[in-house]
Design goal:
The protein is mainly alpha-helical. The model has no long low-confidence stretch (mean pLDDT about 85). Helix content is about 75%, strand content about 0%. The chain has helices at about 5-30, 35-50, 55-60, 65-70, 75-90, 95-115, 120-135, 145-150. It has 8 helices and no strands. It is globular.
């Protein structure tokens, strides 16, 4: 099978999702034990692993520009998942307003990933979860049509 095949890409995405799920579990466990510093360190390590040296720059860019920099849908989805992780951590700390802003950013990154690869079920799952967390009108209107199209996609295998 040639490099870059769909099966290999699916394996990569699944490994990335497992890594993110394990990381989120560790972060939440550390936070629940009251070790906020260790939770923050775990999140920073995940950001460095998944985004490399671009992590700090991406924080300062809007999601559309950050997605352009990341280019690959899997990397863009990783940025979405990291934003969602950080939002969850902030929610656990009682910082709901800041968490909401990161939920919005996670959704924007997920939509940017979906625009580049609309066949990815993991991206649609992130879109659905992130969209459900946002109050109406929280997402910039430039994403309204894309969100409607994504949410209209069937779930699971046909």
């Amino acid at each position: 099978m040639p490099i870059g095949s769909s099966e290999q890409e699916d394996d990569f995405v699944m490994r990335q999702i497992r890594l993110l799920a394990q990381t989120l579990a560790r972060i939440c466990g550390l936070q629940a034990m009251g070790d906020a510093m260790a939770a923050d360190a775990e999140l920073s390590a995940a950001r460095a692993t998944l985004l490399g040296g671009r992590a700090d720059l991406i924080d300062h860019l809007d999601p559309a520009s950050g997605a352009e920099l990341l280019a690959e849908p899997n990397a863009i989805l990783a940025a979405a998942e990291l934003c969602a992780m950080e939002a969850e951590l902030l929610r656990m700390r009682g910082a709901g307003d800041r968490a909401g802003a990161l939920d919005c950013r996670a959704l924007q990154f997920a939509l940017e990933a979906w625009l580049r690869d609309p066949q990815t079920e993991e991206t649609l799952a992130r879109i659905r979860v992130s969209a459900a967390r946002l109050p109406p009108g929280a997402l910039p209107s430039t994403y309204d049509a894309t969100l409607r199209l994504a949410l209209d996609q069937p779930t699971g295998p046909a």
